[in-house]
Each structure stands twice: as structure tokens, then as C-alpha cells.
Design a protein that fits this description.
Elements: H1 14-17, E1 25-26, H2 37-49, H3 60-79, E2 87-92, H4 95-105, E3 116-121, H5 126-129, H6 131-134, E4 140-145, H7 147-155, E5 168-174, H8 187-193, E6 204-207, E7 216-222, E8 241-245, H9 247-250, E9 257-262, E10 279-282, E11 289-291, H10 295-299, H11 306-323, H12 326-346, E12 356-359, E13 373-378, H13 388-397, E14 400-401, E15 403-405, H14 410-417, H15 421-429, E16 440-441, E17 444-445, E18 448-452, H16 459-478, E19 491-494, E20 507-508, E21 525-531, E22 540-542, E23 544-545, E24 547-548, E25 551-552, E26 558-561, E27 580-584, E28 589-594, E29 598-603, E30 612-617, E31 625-631, H17 634-644, E32 650-654, E33 679-683, H18 684-697, H19 705-711, E34 716-719, E35 729-734, E36 737-746, H20 765-772, E37 777-783
Parallel strand pairs: 1-14, 3-4, 3-5, 5-7, 7-8, 19-35, 33-34
Antiparallel strand pairs: 2-9, 4-6, 8-9, 10-11, 12-13, 13-18, 15-18, 16-17, 20-23, 21-22, 21-34, 24-25, 26-32, 27-28, 28-29, 30-31, 31-32, 33-37, 35-36, 36-37
Length: 792
Amino acid sequence: MDYFQGKPCLVENFEEEFGALAGRAYLDHAGATLYSRSQLATVHAALGRHLYGNPHTRSLASRHSTDAVDQARFRLLQHFNTSGDDYAVVFTSGATAALALLADAFQFGGDAAAPGSFVYLQESHTSVLGVRGRLAGRPVTVSALAPAAAAAAFSAAAADQQSDDTRRGLFAFPALCNFSGRKYPLEWVTQARRGALDGLTAGRRLRGRGHVAGCRWYCLLDAAGHVGTNDLDLSRAQPDFVCLSFYKMFGYPTGLGALLVHRRAQHTLQKAYFGGGTVQVSLAGEDFHVARSELHERLEDGTLPFLAIAAVTHGLDTVRRLAGPMKAVSAHVFGLAQYTYRHLSALRHSNGSPVVRIYSDTEYDDIETQGGIISFNLLRPDGAFFGSTEVEKFAGVYDIDLRTGCFCNPGACQRFLGLSTETVKEHFQAGHVCGDETDLIDGRPTGAVRASFGYMSRRADADRLLLMRAASSAAGAAGGGGGQQVEPSGGRLVAPASGVRDQGAPLAMQNGPSARPAAAEVGPRLTEVVVFPVKSCAGFSVPWWPLGPRGLLYDRHWMVVAAGGSALTQKRQPSLCRVRPEVSLHTGRLLLHADGFGSVAVPLAPDPALSVTSLTLCESRVCGDRVGGLDCGDAAADWLSQVLDLEGVRLVRQNPASARSSKVNGSSGLLSLSNESPYVLVSRSSVAALRSAMQERGVDDGVSEAELTDRFRANLVVAGLPPYEEERMELVTLGDTTLRMLGDCSRCQMICVDQATGERSREPLLTLSAARGRRMPFGVHLVIGFEMVDSS
């Protein structure tokens, strides 16, 4: 059945409600769905109308908060077609916190001779797997159940269990697989409660002696990935416990979720810790306390996030108002997934081989078994895989937000990708961890690409994904199944002897910046030196430049940071290219220029009065590297805010006292490069070869070699080498300074930013993929140390 009726979007006033999506295709609703403008306006209006106080206080402001929280509990249960007579709502910080609470509080009973049992579907979220850790040392067997084994166990009719309640089993499974979008039968709830898992031996035993007959079984439904786009009728399927997060349902608020507890199962929960508001009485000088009678009062420690909870009601109202009932949302997202699946499945390379490998247990033909998620990997004409990191780069130039990896579902990832437990462990021992950019090992993918739809998704979003797939598959075909690869040869690139003369002396060029000799000229030579004083802003060419203790003096010595302290780059803020820094050595100032905004000056020497701030270098999924910086004052900050049209940005310089900044290799005495400033070398002949490839594809748009070179933001530009020959080098000698080749530069969508205008396009990234293969290498990193840090 074709569920997609051609309606482009459920939200009629889409542009008004989701204006922030202008020009983008957001396809990560399984990660987090989006909030609407009217939703936030309603929340803010309510906050302005009433005064909300601590619910534990007895006052009018407290009453407003208590009423808002009670209303949210009522509306949430109403949304799931049940009531407080059957379920209690326990607010938590999210689905993960709900699982942790349940793991701590659920009483399995039994003892070492006759333990309780925890069984979970193998294709569960990592947060469900984490329950195992809370059970360590308790008399509980732990087993993982494969979907096929679960289907077999639940296909047989089970009589109502007669076991007493002294030993308990807990079965956990997701309503929807966040990897493949498969919907698991909610009838499993009834079958599990009837004892269908008693004596089961097909599960993978992880701890204990397997399942014990005689358990009374309870069921935990992980509904976090399900309820954002599907109806959950708790009057029909009645799991004992349900966990969910609200940001997956309606985007706002984040950091809030709930554990729904069926009244028949609330006696199984006993929590050791008690916080403020959960007791009727407690003594400080004696170990004595009495918990409150209502379940949510016993389990909700401390003061609830009452303002966030008040927003839940407005979120539920918004979805109903903009999209209609959840059945309509479910049909819409399934229709988009079905539409995408059918078109992706039909894509073929010119040799007839498929363009994608889709990971699914269904044919996307039944809304009862499939949700609005589609996971896949792209294939080259010879059947080799594209790396998911490369696909992320394609998505970036097409303004598509999607997710890659295993999506915190290692069981599903292993099954669909054919990764054995031993293989995963080998990958880990080789250095691959969750969230890194190691997307292929021995040609096999370590993760997948996921597109997921929400109630505000449009057919245009799916069409853009299909367009990107067609372009990337064309790039893969042109790349010849991996692109041009160059093996190291151990050669040397030698600059003129008039280069570096002694420690601290200028680094000279054989030719001036404007000479730009042709790549065909004989003999490798350094033709241009470019200094980038402010990270990700424009550079300036110089005929010579002094060496400091860390290399090129003042190169990437400053950065622009957002209000939260994270470094800004052109990946996020292309308008940074409008900022043209210039270091004036004779006046001792850093000058920042921008057309139409004049200039601002900052002293080169750090002002002792500058405040030290803690910065987060967080430009990818691997975050947490902290460095100390010196704030450069309000004048520079105000100027940057105007130029970039961003509030709260600051200019920060390296702090000489920072431990990380002091990592300097002093062995050579000539050119010691800091970890913050790896240098990039680009060959002019490589630029010419890439431009020729763009011309052959008809996508060069008249871009000159000089303009193309600027996009690669190289510190050193050389001539006189065959294309990509620089990647064969191991050492570079500039005068009597020798630099090590750390490796090639894997490029991203930042090279698609026109450095003169800040406008973004899809080139030269697509051509680079076609010419060079999956990592899209261009240029090389030079460093004396062995760490590589992004030099954008």
C-alpha cells in the first residue's frame, strides 16, 4: 500500500513555524525533532502571565507550578490514551535517567540459588544495555535476546503465568528500532507477562546461569524513539514501565523525560536514596525516614524542573494543532520513508550495480512494521563502500542534516553490517571508538547513514537526499572506486638555500606572492607563504616572515569564539572570511579589517590585564579539549559582533601560560610547530589538476587557480611538482629547516566557501571526491610533533 498521498508537508504554515529550516533539509528527527516558533511563543507567553515558584513552597506562585506539573501529568497520560488510575508519571531528566532509575529501584527478588532475570532485546539502545551495570553483584541473570529468538518465543501461545512474586524477571525491548526503523510487536508485552520467556535458552547469556523458570515477568518498553512519530495506545498495550524523552516528541524542552509506571507494578520499586521532597519525615541524628505515599513523590528527588515541565503541555498542543492526530503523523513519516526507500532502491550505477545498501527487515510496505527511518550505506560501481564521513561531507554541501555511525545501537549495527563481536573488539584495539571518523576498516563500514523523518518533514527533504545520493554516486563512479591514491616514497622537497638562515630569521620566498610560476616549471620551489593570524579568518601573503618559538610567528594565534566558548570556523560561520587580519610587526598590532566596517586594532603583546577564559575546542563530535585563552577586550568583540552579525562573540588569543600551548618541540631550534598550528602545504600543480577536473565536469564556474588555492588555506604553496606528488614526500627541507610530513589533509565542506564572498557552493568538494576518493585528500600537514589538529 502506498501511504504517501503526495501532500508535501503536514504543516500548512511551514515557513512561518520553521523559518530556521530555510534552505536546509533536516533528516535527524530520530536524534531530536524540532520545536516550532508558535510553540516557544506559547511557552514564553505563559511564563509572562504567571509567577511560578518552587512547588515545595506553600504560596500562590508555588500553586501555579504545582498546577502546571499536575496538568502536564494529566495531558501526557491523555496523549497515550490512559489515565492516572492505570499509570503514574515520574518525571526524569530523560529516557536514559528513567532507565537508570528503574535499574536501581526494581526489586528482582530471589537469591544466588534462584535469581531473578533481566532480558533485553539485543537491538536495544545503549542506555538499555547500561542497565546491566546497575545489576552487578545482585542475584540477577542477564541475557541478550536476538529479534529472531524473541519472535519465536512470542509466537507460541503462553498461558497466564502462575508464578508467585518472590522472583521477578524484567524484559526490555524498544517499540521502534532506532537503527532500522523496524516496529516491534507490542503484543510482546502481553506474551512476556504471561511467561513466554520462562526457561528460554536461546538468548545470549551474559551473566548467571540463564533464565530461571518460575519468575513473574514484568515488561519495560523503550518508547523514546517511537512516540515522536507514532501513536502509543496504553489502553491496549499495557507495559509495566515506559521510558521516553520529550525533545524527541516536540523538540522543546530538552533534558526532560518520564518513566511511566503501571499501578500493578509500582510495588516492585524501592529506591535506596531519598532527596528533598520525597519523604514524610526524616531524622538527622538517626537513620530514620518514611517515604511519601504517592509513587512519583517517592521517586522524584529534589525540586522538579517545573518550568520545563510546564512546557510539556504546550508541546503536546503544538503537535496536535500543526500536524493533527498521531496516526496522521505516523502515516506521513512512513510515507516519506517509503518514498525514499523505493527511489534509493531503484538507483543504479551505469554498470547496473546498486548505488545503496539499505539496512532493513521490511520492504517498507506496512506501516504496522516500519517507521519513518531509513539507514543505508552508499556503494561505488565496483561494490566498494563509501565511508560515512565522506557522505557527511556530501550532506554538508547539500545543506542536509543527517546522522552517521551506529546510533547508540550496537546490536543492530553488528547484525546489519555483519560485524562479529571479535571484529568489533579488534576495531577497538586498533583505535576505533564510537563517534570517531574511522568509517571504513579493511573496506568494510563501521557504521551507516541514517535519515529519519518528523511531523514537519517535507517531500522536498527526501528529494534533496535523493539528489545528493545521485551526485555522490556520480562522484564515486568518476573516482574509479576509491580515487587516485599515492604511496609514500621517502623523497624530499628542497627549498632554495636562501630560505631559513638561522634561528628566528625570516622565511624567504624565491618569488613574490604575485609571481605564481607555472606548475610545469622544473624544480620544486616555495612560491608563497600565507599567515593566518586568526583561526578560520582570511590569511595574508608575505614575501618573508619571522619564525617564533612555535613556527610562523602569530599564525593562528587568535580565534573567534561564540558566547559559549566554542571556537568558530567557516564550517559554521562562513562570514569569517570577511575578516581580514593583518599583523603589523613594526607597530606591534594585529589589525582586523572588513569592508564597510573599518578596522580594529589589538596589541600583539598580551596585556597583563587581559582576563583568562576557558575555551572549548569543539568543532567535531570529539569534544572536551580545554585550552586557556586571553580575552582581547570589548572593542574587538563589539567589532566582530557587527561584522559577523552575532551576539556574544569574542576575540581570544593563545595564553602563553596554557599547558596545552606550551607543547613545543625544541629539538631542531629552527622551526618548532605548536599543536595548535600545524602547517598545510599545497602544490600549485595539484590545484591545476583539480581545476581541470572541474572544467571537464563543467562545474568550475570560471574560478581561477588563485581563487581555488585560497580555499585550501595553505601556509606554504609550492611549484615544480607533478600533481599530488607532495603526498609522496616524508620530509620537507626549507633551507636548513626540515619538517615532517604528518599525512594528507582530509577535506570537508569548508573548501566550498568562496573566500572572497563567503558564499557556499557544492564545489570543489564533489569533484575532489571524484578525483581523489573517499577521504578527499588535498595538500599535506607539516609538523615536527606527531599530533594533527584541524588547521581551519
